[in-house]
Amino acid sequence: MIFIDTQAEFDAAMARVAAQPVVSLDTEADSLHSYFDKVCLIQMSIPGEDLIIDPLSKIDLASFGEVLANRAITKILHGADYDLRILNRDFGYTIANLIDTMVCSQLLGYEAFGLAALLAASALAFTMIKWLGAAYLLWLAFGMLRAALRGTPDTIPAPSSAPAGWRKIYMQGFVTNVLNPKVALFFLALLPQFIAADAPSKPLAFLFLGALFVVNGTLFLTTTNSDFDTLLAVYTGDSLTNLSLVASNDAAGRPGTNAFVPRLWPAG
Question: How would you class 51 by CB atoms within 10 Å of its CB: exposed for 0-12, middle for 13-18, buried for 19 or more?
Answer without folding.
Answer: buried
